[in-house]
Fold:
Amino acid sequence: MKLRYGINPQQKTAHAAPMTPGKWPVRLLHGEPSFINMLDALNGWQLVREAGRALGKPAAASFKHVSPAGAAVSGAIDEVTTELYGVANGEVGPLASAYLRARDADPKSSYGDFAAVSHPVDDELAELLTGMVCDGIVAPGYAPGTVERLSKKKNGRFLVMETDDAFTPPHQEAREVFGLRLTQQQDEVELSSTLLDPVVGDPLPDTAVADLVLGLAVLIRS
Structure:
């Protein structure tokens, strides 16, 4: 896949290719991604997939320049967020609430973000995104008509990417930095609340466990 440019616009030559020929973890449905867009999409998807599975709720992340500006799972929306995004009576579905909560973690940094969600994009989330300054989204699927609606954002430059939820990365991961190729085993420890089981003392409250699990997912993909 030819990319729009590398980390910076002056890096005109940039490409993406699967490590295993023919096995792509993501599929481009609309737009022309840059190097950073790909990093945001791949890291964002891994974060929300891990958080969603560990916590049993829809998860979302707001990525900006290869760092998560915010991450959250579905839940209640406060009055400030309700007013800011024009959500009627604070009523919003699980997936949209997860993204609004993630974006609200740092609204300034999320301006022009790349969104990632753990579940297929529904009509509600697509409608919310059409009114936000957001550069793209990665998700495991899209409700009928949502890709076409999102494709019209940013004068047709909004990025829409779909992940392969069944994709398993290679056992080894590698990174090339300044002429060196660094290789390590994939971290295959499954993120779950059992990682926080106490060795001594009383168990943590469920809310604290959920916050820490989400924090671990963010830390791993930061």
Notes: The chain has six helices and eight strands. The chain has a mean pLDDT of 92. Residues 78 and 90 are 7 Å apart (CA to CA).
